[in-house]
Amino acid sequence: MKTLDVQVWRGDETGGFEKFEAPAQENQTVLDVVTWIQRNADPSLSYRFACRVGMCGSCAMTVNGRPRWTCRTHVSRVAKDGRLKIEPLLNLPVIKDLASDLKPFFDKWNAARGTFEAAIKREDPLVPISPDQPERAAANAAIECINCAVCYSACDMVGWKPSYLGPAALNRAWAAWNDVRNDNRLDVLKAVSDDAGCHNCHSHQSCSEHCPVGLNPTLSIAGLKRATSKALLKGNLK
Amino acid sequence: MIAAKLYLIQRISALLMAPLVIAHLVGIIMAVQGGLTAEEILGRTQGSLGWLCFYSAFVILVAVHGTIGLRSILIEWTPLANRIVDALAAGWLISALILGLRAVVAVTWS
Question: In whole angstroms, what is the distance from residue A73 CA to residue A70 CA?
C-alpha cells in the first residue's frame, strides 16, 4: 500500500513536528489525512473543522508552507512526492497542535467597524438598491468571505506589524463602506485610517493569491485608500 | 488619522516630485555633454533663482517623502517603539532638510 510521509505540528508555539505515516488514497484531501491520523494514529491530535465542504472556513492550516483550506485541498495537488508538512496558521497564537487561536483575527473585524447599522427604522419603507449601482457591485465583489483567516496568515504586513487589521477585516470594511444603506460609513473610514489601518498595506497581494474563494482583498484595501484620501481632501475625515 | 494623512502626503509629494525627477535627470545628461567640471556646474547654477527654487522644492519634497517611507520601514522591520521611531524620523527629516538646503544654497548663491 502506498503511504504518505506526514509531518504534523504538535504542541503550542514552542512545540515541534511529529512524523506520521498515513495511507495514500487515490482521492483524499489534507483534512482527510489529518482526520485519519487523529482517528488511527494519535487521538490526542487537536485540529478544527466543521462543514468539510468549503463553506465554514474552520479548517484552514499551513500545508507545505502555504495557508490553505484543508477540506478542499487535494493531497495530489500539493504533495506530488508524497510528503506533507502540516502546521497551524501563521500570524496567530497556537492553542494546540493544528488549532490556531482566531481571537486576534475576529477582534480586528470589530476594530475595522465592518458592522452594518441600518439608516432606516423597521417601519420605514425599504430603499430600492439596484444591483447595477457601482457601490453595490463593489460590495458584492467583497462579500463572500468565509472568515477562514487564510489571507491573514498569508499577509507579510501582519507578520511585520501585528497590530495591522489585516486583509479580511479591511475587505469587510470595504463592503460596509460601499453599502449605501449603512448608517456608519464614515465610522468605517475613520476606523481604517487608524495607525493599524489600510494604509499599511504594501499591495503584495498574498491575500488575493491565497484566498480560497477567489476574493481580492488587495483591491478592497486599495479602494479604502482612495476613499479615505478623498474624504481627507474634502475635510470629512479629521 | 495620522496614518491616512502621512499616506496622502507621501502620494502628493511623489506626484509633485515626478516632473522634478525627470527635469533633474535630463539636466544631468545635458550638463555632462561638454565634460563635467565644478566651474561649468557653478557657472550655470550660481545666482540662478530658477535653480534655487527648483532644487529647494526638490529637497523639501524628497525629505518629506523619504522620511515617511523610512518611518514605515522602521516600524515594520525593527522592534523599536513608535515613540522612538517618530523621534528618529523627525531627526532624519531635519537632517535631510538642513543638509539638502545647505547644498542648494552652496551651488546657487552667488
Answer: 5
